[in-house]
Amino acid sequence: MQTELRLGELCERLSEAQDHDDLARAVAGLRDTYDVEHVVYHCVRSGGEQWGALTYPKEWVDAYVKEDFKSIDPVVAACFSRPTPVDWKALDWSARPARELLGSATASGLGSQGCSLGVRGPSGRYALFSVNDRMSDGLRSRFTDARVDEMILAAHYIDSRAQEMEAEPVAKLRTLSPRETDALTLLAKGLGRAQAAERLAISEHTFRVYVESARNKLGARNTLHAVAHAMSLGLICL
């Protein structure tokens, strides 16, 4: 239930966001909800333009860009090569450039603990979502284990809303049917396909048909994107 409340609050903020400043405030609100040092969303568009909604100190952001740290950042490399969340502590920081990056980050007030996730978009668009803190190894492990699924959804919700802001105006979306709405809502609450189908008293095959229909209406790349897109538009609520 607490997870649903956190995600519901985030989606409400995102649905009300009208510009990048509003999106940045939503990210800052997520940081406060998690009670961590920093939450970061950074995207690189297909044309190479970069934009971010983050809570890092400005001096660290400026230093990161000036020193081109992204080219030697183990977190960026790991997230780009794998679809699952990346625990910073599990990465190799032994190379001198990586150690210098970590030392500079610590000196700027960042914590050494972090978890990041890459989000791929259309036409080469790529985004990185990170949570950073100074917590102990044990607390970090418990925090990540308890919230990893929620963080994945949050990353996709934020990225979906950012893409909507960048997109050209499009025709108004068709309304989802009650069954399509029910199907996406149950998935958003963390139920698997079989569990959701049983909850709706329909076969898993029929459930998949509803999800696929909703995905097509929303123009979503996959089911996760469909859920995130529907929530950001206010079509489903937790």
Folded structure, characterized:
The protein has 238 residues and is of the alpha+beta class. The protein has two domains: 2-166, Beta-Lactamase; 178-232, Winged helix-like DNA-binding domain superfamily/Winged helix DNA-binding domain (Arc Repressor Mutant, subunit A, Orthogonal Bundle). The chain has helices at 2-16, 20-34, 58-66, 74-81, 96-107, 137-166, 178-188, 193-200, 204-218, 223-232; strands spanning 38-44, 50-54, 86-87, 113-120, 126-133. It has a five-stranded antiparallel beta sheet, sandwiched between helices. Strand 4 (113-120) and strand 5 (126-133) form a beta hairpin. Helix 7 crosses helix 8 (193-200). The chain is globular. The model is unreliable at 168-173 (pLDDT under 50).
Name some characteristics of this structure.
alpha+beta, Arc Repressor Mutant, subunit A, about 240 residues, single chain, Beta-Lactamase
